[in-house]
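ok trying again, last paste got cut off:
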Amino acid sequence: MKGYSVVPVDKMEGNVVDRISNQWMLVTAGDGEKCDTMTASWGGIGFVWGTPAATVYIRPQRYTREFIDARERLTLSFMGEEFRQALTYCGSHSGRNEDKIANAGLSVGLTPEGTPFIEGAELVMECRKLYRDRFGPAEFLDKTLIDVWYPEQDFHYIYICAIERIYVRIPEQ
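nice, full thing came through this time. structure:
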């Protein structure tokens, strides 16, 4: 990918909790013909089944989920603060009804594997799906979370994904 270098997963810098919860990320899936992205502030990075992994949570009604389910890979694009307005737009509009990516002022690139990502990202994680499940009311040990986070009973799908590659944008000289 032009303008990016590959960094080993165990050498990734920065506070991952802050990246996800405060800086947000764009979850992107599809192919070179058609893709969608969505803003996410729920997720995690860790180690499971012998591999570095990312966990993302997607509500069932999100259009991006259709692309995630249809493909083996997805990307997590972490953008700089200058993209805050675009991130807000992508979190409040649906690609089902418009060209959300273009309307947010963003453009799509492809990794060498052909996985779409959002150009200009400071950091891109290319991930391969390993597992999918869905939260259910019976599994909540703290039932108060259901009323707070799921008044419509639209429980998130959980995707555990192997982090295959991390791309870090090379600063312009």
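cool. Strands lie at 4-7, 25-30, 35-40, 43-48, 51-58, 73-78, 108-110, 116-118, 123-134, 157-169. The longest strand covers residues 157-169.
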